[in-house]
Amino acid sequence: MKQKITLSIITVLFFSTNLKAQDNIITKRVESSVSKKSKAEQNNDSIFKAHLVNDEFQVWIDLDLYHNNILVPRQEIFGEVPGYFGAVRDTRKWIISDATIKGKKAILTIINDYGSEDLKAELKHNSNGTYTLSRIDGSTMKIVVNNKWVNIPKDVTFYKK
Q1: Residues 132, 80, 118: CA angle, nearest 5 degrees
Q2: What is the pLDDT of residues 3-30, one digit of tens each?
């Protein structure tokens, strides 16, 4: 009887170890193919993975529209997003909740961090290396400067930093 129990335990341990080893091999293969694909994507087109700055309004955009893996500082509750719009003089953020890339243009859905305002915008990569964010439809983006709301214009030009 003891031999049967011992044999059963050894058999279960053997199969569980074998399954774990197979799982590790499969995981390594998947990770390898994913990393090769990611490197290829980055080499082909990385214009929409950047830190963009506008000095006139003292605002910036952090974005990675390829992997949608940006965390909004102090607002991690939103999880990983395609990007966000921030200002030097305001702690509030405008979050890019959705993005569709079409060549050198991206169509963005942007919401404020309260969820009370939203807009559609186009981010275009210009031939001179700058970017233009143009509001297509929806709310006007606003930031606070010296305790007053400042509207961000319909078209804002950014450069890559």
Answers
A1: 50
A2: 666 666 776 655 555 545 455 554 554 4
